[in-house]
């Protein structure tokens, strides 16, 4: 992947991936690749994993100050730390819901709808938490995406049944 002057990322070599093409994304590629069990799929997943794995590491590094108390001690010693951090993630999601319900714009970043900013906050907190507890969120996400593609209850046919998921 290479970042171009326009700020977009493009896969190299051979220009197979172009982020500026709305029909060409990593998930679009994965949609087609996920039906394949070949080495090509495994290669694609591994390259995506290595890219995705850097995001939580970077976010956690930028937020190390959140992981120490006023005396500089690691707050993960507290057995409630993980659940407290999950509650903060939940609060960000609730704020996104409130922003969406009331069509509000964020007070700190007024150029964005509140729901966008609060979802970003939740994502930052999720990735930071995962890295702080050595959770391989990239691998878990990839495996969950692959699993969900095979789930019978995620098919249109199953959803149309009497007991199928309606949403």
Secondary structure tally, helices: 6
**Total beta strand runs:** 2
Residue-averaged pLDDT, rounded? Answer: 82
Order of helices and strands: EEHHHHHH
Specify the structural class. Answer: mainly alpha
Largest beta-sheet details: 2 strands, antiparallel
State the low-pLDDT regions, or none: 6-10, 12-20
Q: Work out the count of structural domains.
A: 1
Taken as a percent bin, the fraction of beta residues is under 5%
Q: What topology, given as strand order, has the largest sheet?
A: 1-2
As a whole number of angstroms, the C-alpha radius of gyration is 19 Å
If you had to describe this structure to a student in words, what would you say it looks like?
This protein is mostly helical and 167 residues long. It has one domain (34-156). Helix content is 54%, strand content 2%. The protein has helices spanning 26-33, 39-62, 81-102, 114-132, 137-150, 156-159, and strands at residues 2-3, 9-10. Strands 1-2 form a two-stranded antiparallel ribbon. Strand 1 (2-3) and strand 2 form a beta hairpin. Helix 3 runs antiparallel to helix 4 (114-132). It is globular, with a radius of gyration of 19 Å. It starts with a strand and ends in an 8-residue tail after the last helix. Mean pLDDT is 82; it is low at 6-10 and 12-20.
